[in-house]
Specification:
The chain is α/β, with parallel strands linked by helices and 266 residues long. Helices cover 20% and strands 26% of the residues. Bound molecules: zinc ion (3 copies).
Length: 266
């Protein structure tokens, strides 16, 4: 198996945890596991660094994890909590002296263009963020420059809204799914690590609940499942963690999952 390191940059739903103005036990918890920036993750594999989504907390996440290199950004979908940090890729432009490769479906890339017109101006102002866009589709696998591993898009439905998950060798990353069809379950099966969204215990129209996510995990049968995109209404990290089946974990910000022969959590 290809060695990898997966870093959870953020594991919170769109408002983050704590939620502004909320005094619930999770939002006021002193346990750092209950403080969640917006959902994003970074995968180091085969010498490359791939980031899933660039949300509003991107700058803070990159500083915290001391990330000096990004080879590609993969967009899952265009919701603000997944794209709005794009302006903060500028330091990587300076370090690389070039544009960052970003991948998304045509629809997502068009929406990113609408949100950041100055990035795509034919005559951008000096210092504007620079990206090289790569249009992908839900059917065809693709790769990033020099990776040597095929990336398989995994189309899922976010309450009717199309979202892409990705399989990169032993790692499957799926966020903002409500329904996942059997084809995708099959494409994900046998992975070492499955990342899956789980918003809260109660049913939600566009996100998997905790029990939905556990059910999907039982079908995919990965070695380890990490739940992300978590709301304050899920409950305390410590309490919910005790209720989970073996091999299923609530992810938390800063969690590192490494595999150099055996998967370990750090
Ligand atoms: Zn989201
Ligand atoms: Zn709260
Ligand atoms: Zn979303």
């Amino acid at each position: 198996m290809e060695a990898f390191e997966l870093i959870f940059l953020g594991t919170g739903t769109s408002q983050g945890v704590p939620v502004i103005g909320c005094n619930c036990e999770v939002c006021t918890s002193s346990d750092p596991h209950d403080q969640r920036l917006r959902t994003s993750a970074l995968l180091k594999i085969a010498g490359k660094t791939i980031v899933f989504d660039v949300g509003p907390d991107f700058r803070q996440q990159m500083l915290r994890e001391k990330i000096c290199q990004i080879d590609a950004v993969l967009f899952t979908h265009e919701h603000n909590d997944h794209v709005i940090g794009l302006d903060d890729i500028r330091p990587y432009n300076f370090m690389k002296r070039g544009g960052i490769d970003v991948f998304g479906t045509k629809r997502v890339l068009n929406e990113v263009k609408n949100r950041f017109p100055y990035v795509f101006d034919p005559n951008p102002y000096p210092g504007a963020p620079s990206v090289n866009t790569h249009s992908i589709n839900e059917k065809d696998s693709f790769s990033i420059n020099g990776l040597g591993i095929a990336i398989q898009p995994l189309p899922v439905s976010h309450g009717g809204w199309p979202v892409l998950g990705f399989r990169i060798g032993p790692v499957v990353y799926i966020t903002d799914a409500k329904t996942i069809d059997d084809k995708v379950i099959e494409a994900a099966s046998g992975c070492e690590v499955l990342v899956l969204n789980a918003l809260r215990k109660k049913e939600h129209y566009s996100h998997l609940s905790l029990s939905d996510a556990i059910r999907i995990s039982e079908k995919v049968k990965p070695k380890h499942t990490f739940l992300t995109h978590i709301s304050h209404t899920m409950g305390l990290y410590e309490d919910v963690s005790k209720e989970l089946p073996d091999g299923v974990y609530l992810a938390y910000d800063g969690l590192r999952v490494k595999n150099t022969g055996k998967t370990v959590l750090q």
